[in-house]
Amino acid sequence: QSTVRSGSGQTDPSRGPYIAVITNRSTTLVIRGFMLFSIGVFLALVLNLLQVQRNVTLFPPDVISSIFSSAWWVPPCCGTASAIIGLLYPCIDCRLGEPHKFKREWSSVMRCVAVFVGINHASAKVDFANNVQLSLTLAALSIGLWWTFDRSRSGFGLGVVIALLATLSTQLLVYNGVFQYTSPDFLYIRSWLPCIFFAGVITMGNIGRQLALYECKLMSEKTHQD
Amino acid sequence: MTVRERLREKISTAFYRHGLLCASYPVPIILFTSASILACCYPLLRLPLPGTGPVEFTTRVRDYTVPSHEPQGDLGERPDWYRGPPVAYIQQVLVKAAVSPWDSTLVPVDVFRSPLGRVFSLLEEIRNHVHNDGSGVRSLEALCLQVTDLLPGLRRMQTVLPEHGCLLVSPGNYWQNQRELFDSDPDLLKTVHQHEPKGLHTSATLRDLLFGVPVKHTGVSLYSRKRVVTYTITMVLGSYDARFLSSLRARLRQLHPSVNCSLREDHMVHVHFKEEIGMAELIPLVTTYIILFAYIYFSTRKIDMVKSKWGLALAAVVTVLSSLLMSVGLCTLFGLTPTLNGGEIFPYLVVVIGLENVLVLTKSVVSTPVDLEVKLRIAQGLSNESWSIMKNMATELCIILIGYFTLVPAIQEFCLFAVVGLVSDFFLQMFFFTTVLSIDIRRMELADLNRRLPAEAGMPPPKPGPLRPREAPPPPRPSPYTITLQTPAFRNLRLPKRLRVVYFLARTRLAQRFIMVGTVIWIGILAYTDPAGLRTYLAAQVSEQSPLGESGAGGLPPHLGVASVFPGPGGDPASTLSVLPAPAEPTPLPENQSQGHHGAPREGVPHQAQAPPLVPQISWGAEDEEGWRRLSFRHWPSLFSYYNITLAKRYISILPVIPVTLHLSPREAIETRHPQDTRHPPPFIGMYGEGSKQVINPLSLSRVAALGLAAGVLLVLLLFCLYRVLCPRNYGQNGVAHGRRRRGDLPCDDYGYSPPISEISPLLLRGHSMDIECLASDGMLLASCCLAGQIRVWDAQTGDCLTVIPKHGSCLYSCIIGGWEQRDGWDTVGVAEPENLGGGTEPGGGVFDEDEGYPLRRRTTPRPALFEDQPDLTPLIDTNFDSQPSSHLLLTPPRDGFDFGGLVERAYLEHEPPSLGAVWAMELRGNLIAAGRSSGKLELWDAVEGSLRCSNEDGVSGITALAFLNNRIVAARLDGSLDFFTVDINKPLGLLQYRGPPGRSNMPPSPCYSSEDVISCQLTRSVQCAHQKPITVLRAAAGRVVTGSQDHTVRVYRLEDSCCLFTLQGHSGGITAIYIDQTMVLASGGQDGAICLWDVLTGSRVSHVYGHRGDVTSLVCTTSCVISSGLDDLICIWDRSTGIKLYSIQQEVGCGASLGVISESLLVTGGQGCVSFWDLNFGDLLQTVYLGQSSDGQGVRQLVVLNNAAIVCDFGSELSLVYVPSVLEKLD
């Protein structure tokens, strides 16, 4: 069979190999997971640095060791958790059938990340009068973060659940003596941890959704083609 | 609710008025805002610059007590760091020594050798000084700061810096504080120099540390003009003992009196060092900044549809930044001093304030109707978004106010700044940004107008007749092509390589990055080589601890510079000057010297008396009081850091210096000489004291100047070379020969720039004498048919003309051609009466005679009746006429010839059914050419042999379109009927050969007809009234035949049984373009400018878009997009699945409508005398190939893409074959 306009139908209808790989569903999943994982690891390292750095000496500080001042397993754990969360959010959106439409832009995601880092910064650097104040402030900030960047019920629910689970697991770890908090104040630790976790979950969910958006676009394109 | 609505209305009205105001008076408003920004930022000038510079606090020595640790209530002036004992007290002995009188027998080295030699005796003196009073015996050993090891990485310095003992540094450390080493040192300067680090340094060097004064003030140099050597002996004391110090002072003063010294000695300065920013703190900071920049990037990327994207992005960023500055300024103005670390909270403030509002504003303004006035657009855009802006702002203010009530000071301060910042940001948005936006929109409108006017004014430009007047040179094209892109992802035009290189550099900012990398490397090297830097640290990790340093003697030298001064209580030393006369306490002197002051007492007094005129003047000035201020402010921290003592967030106290003046006699200087000293080239200026330096100075100056000049010349040369490389040679001259843009004058194989020569050059196929009417190809062969009815078959690979097929009755056309070439003949006789001409084309035999009569009459050339039997006559006639031009009256301008050509064409169309019509449609398959004539006759020609294989005259109405698929031919006729023919091949040998394997989808089996075959063409079915109106387009693919007609419908037929499957309705105008391919995608475009995509299987309309003003002239699809071109000279690229316009390309006026897709990403369009290649993915213009020299008059109307990545297009009476070699790889 020939076309009238010779030449127009000559090329291979399938896309280039790169696009083809990208549109492969599981591959994208892996890529997305990996990106989320690396973001999580990176944030964990940086934020951990925020917490530990104080009284830095004049001399070149032990950069490497202060970056890895936490135990080796903490960044991978954070990375894995963020990968799971980042994949879970779009998935749940999909399941619930209410796609997240609110502020789906990279700039808003970056804003969210910045606010998250800011919350960490505040918790690490600002001197609060007491722990109640600290935890209340952080809680307000976290809720504000959710309201500003997410506003979905599923996001809130998932955030709360994961934050509680994470707090519980850290407490378990502490009880089992895997690690200790420097501060003897037990309440202190417990108070800010869930808020930070919540904010982190919202942030990672935001990133994950944004990443998933790309895949959605590609997939829909492909199905249209088929 | 009503309140809310009323509020909303009011807000919107206010914004509307405001928008009008801003757009009406942009300049005054911008001036006003700039003024207010500056005014608000003014208080910032008073703020100390953030940094790690130390701060000072001065107290009196007299009543000094070590400050207590507890903050004491109301000592308001006292800085809060002034608590507890300092890290150390610094006592410096400032020595100024000179050989006097200077006489001509002395060599330059004498300037500093003996003065430096005195340091050892002084050291001895100091070290052995003992103060004994009632409370006990005190010596330096007891008071000084005891240091331990140097940092492990500083092994190199172990010989010069003290370890395990008092921190006492002086130039004597270079020689381990041993006089013998000093005396036996042949080259003092070399010794001093060998410890200097190589390269550039920012922090204190060892030389600074040991000498305690900046290098240029030491006077230790062969070319010293003043011949005064200055150095310090620096003692670092761990505890303060006023009595010991004053006894030491008195002792030294007594030994070496400084007559004219009036240094004040009553103030000590406490210097507090800020926390240094460590790498660990920097990382989170850098991260937040990276996030900030990503935020800004992603935000400003959304700005679109404006004239200058970057300008607006810059304006947005400026808005936010200046609002922050304003907020800080305002807060300072009202007495709030920022205590937060500005650098840390800054990114958060930006994020809180955000760029959203400006983006929303831009979007809203841009989305207002374009045809409104700018003022109104701005006003409307503002008022549209007013409500949401106000709502957002109120929300943010609320959130921040809530934050204010957390009662945490830091958060409160942050919130305060944020609130003020938000308000000032709002102010700036409303005034500054809106105005900038209005200016931008106005600019865009102007640019838009310029671009669009021609397109709108001359909308359907009269199709440039192929024979347009040539003497009127076409106006120079204003701009090549402008592309309107709607998605920001597609941008940037492809340009000549030279420019591309430059743009590439500019885009990737290579130079900038190189510089940045260079800077980073430099900083890295600095950090590495710095004595207190990374190398130390690394070396420390690698090497094991060294046991101990050698000499107990050692010292701390110098001082720090100061960034800002805290005016202490006694802030200005001058005010309290009178308190005590310096030599107040001579008492403790006697017992002080325990043992060895042998060297000291010798020469102090006698010399100073005898100062002759040549005596170098030793003067003490105010600058000596606090000489340490001239040192780097890293001086003290680096000294302490060598011993792993940090000064961060701590302070040291610097005691008033002890001045010591030494005068040495020339005799002593000569005695202490090293034998080698005299070998130094005696400065030829030895005797003129001061003159020496002046002579040397110009010398070195001239050397520097010469070097600078050479470097400058080199730079200029380099730039010149760069310029030559990057810029066209004749840039600026009116050199047309190489000017890039003068296409018309260029020969087709020389474009003025190199890349196209190597890449693409068109091959012109000449032979037709009139304009090409039909073009068909099957990949191997190429058939073209001109207005004269002549069909030529070309080899598509080589461009050779294989066959010339004259139509029947070619003589008629030959004559016309002859007449055309021979303009005068026609002009004088026949052209005056077009009707006559019309008659001439009528089929009647009589007319024919008449036609032939002219040349015969005039030329008396014997013209045999040229009927079918002599097909080759055309060229003959041509040559004949051409060879005798002089015998005719060349009166008429060539323009008439063009007119005539047009007339001929029109005549064909008007007199539709001549019995032997012109070829209106042609198809080529295998080696059979199917030609449909205006007479309704269908002919099959052998393409290779040029013989007529069969013909069918069943229809009467002219064949407007043909499709030839497999062995079927579909012909669409002018009356709207559709005929299906079957081509039967009866091979004598019975076998049908196929050129390709039958199953291949993209290379349709094209039967190869051999010349022995008997071919018959049967009308199998004729669909009368397939359409109500003439069929305009006919396409066939994938077993379907699709017709489009002027009756607004598209019909789909099955090829096998000629059965009409669907009638597709959806257009509101006649169908002008149809595309169908193997994948059953059907697209149609109509006169209404609409494009419909259909599902051929179900007959349903997939999408329907309006893309063009005026007819859609051409349609092509690729697997992912649909490309359409219209009469409005726009090429639109649509997403095939969603029907969304990806982008559009505005072409020049009258650029023609032909389109072709070479590969998935390569589009070719025909233009005025050129074809352009586009990258479909990005909308880049890859290349424009000009087909000929004088091409501007002729547009490319037909364009066929061949299999071998060549394209063929008509070009007046010529065909142009353009190979696209670079595409070959893509296809394969």
From TrEMBL, chain A:
Keyword annotations from UniProtKB, A to Z: Cholesterol metabolism, Endoplasmic reticulum, Lipid metabolism, Lipid-binding, Membrane, Steroid metabolism, Sterol metabolism, Transmembrane, Transmembrane helix
GO biological process: cellular response to insulin stimulus; cholesterol biosynthetic process; SREBP signaling pathway; SREBP-SCAP complex retention in endoplasmic reticulum
Entry superkingdom: Eukaryota
Compartment(s) of residence: Endoplasmic reticulum membrane
Pfam families: INSIG
One GO MF term: lipid binding
Family to which this protein belongs: Belongs to the INSIG family.
Protein name: Insulin-induced gene protein
The species this protein was found in: Oncorhynchus mykiss (Rainbow trout)
TrEMBL record, chain B:
Region listing for Disordered, in residue ranges: 455-479, 574-613, 836-855
Record-annotated SSD domain positions: 281-439
Keyword Transmembrane helix carried by entry: yes
WD repeat locations: 1064-1104
SUPFAM superfamilies in the cross-refs: Multidrug efflux transporter AcrB transmembrane domain (SSF82866), Quinoprotein alcohol dehydrogenase-like (SSF50998)
Membrane topology label: Multi-pass membrane protein
UniProtKB keywords: Cholesterol metabolism, Cytoplasmic vesicle, Endoplasmic reticulum, Glycoprotein, Golgi apparatus, Lipid metabolism, Lipid-binding, Membrane, Repeat, Steroid metabolism, Sterol metabolism, Transmembrane, Transmembrane helix, WD repeat
GO cellular component: endoplasmic reticulum membrane; ER to Golgi transport vesicle membrane; Golgi membrane; SREBP-SCAP complex
Main location: membrane
Subcellular location field: Cytoplasmic vesicle, COPII-coated vesicle membrane; Endoplasmic reticulum membrane; Golgi apparatus membrane
InterPro entries per record: Beta-prop_SCAP, HMGCR/SNAP/NPC1-like_SSD, Quinoprotein_ADH-like_sf, SCAP, SCAP_N, SSD, WD40/YVTN_repeat-like_dom_sf, WD40_repeat_CS
Transmembrane segments: 20-45, 277-298, 310-336, 348-372, 393-411, 704-726
Ranges of biased composition (kind: Pro residues): 459-479
Similarity-based family: Belongs to the WD repeat SCAP family.
Function in brief: Escort protein required for cholesterol as well as lipid homeostasis. Regulates export of the SCAP-SREBP complex from the endoplasmic reticulum to the Golgi upon low cholesterol, thereby regulating the processing of sterol regulatory element-binding proteins (SREBPs) SREBF1/SREBP1 and SREBF2/SREBP2. At high sterol concentrations, formation of a ternary complex with INSIG (INSIG1 or INSIG2) leads to mask the ER export signal in SCAP, promoting retention of the complex in the endoplasmic reticulum.
Protein name: Sterol regulatory element-binding protein cleavage-activating protein
UniProt organism field: Oncorhynchus mykiss
